[in-house]
Input
Amino acid sequence: MSDKRNIQDQKRRLLAEKYELRRKLYKAFSKDTDLPNDVREKHRCKLADLPRNSSFTRVTNRCVFTGRARSVYQMFRVSRIVFRDLASRGLLHGVKKASW
Output
């Protein structure tokens, strides 16, 4: 199940990257108050016609091992549970248990 979620998330990332420039351009034109309303409306419609999964809002950070979406460390792209397990085994370089 985790592979399916990670593949779906990867597809969303690629789509978001592909349409990023177009989306920003349409948003800028639709928010520009100096332009006539019909031009702004045309760009709003073009923005709405873009694929839903091309928005960065729909991209979720997921654990590469389990596919878990919650409490994922961005730097390592693993969940807190996997992170703790890998760190305790010493498989993460530069990470060690704190002691003071």
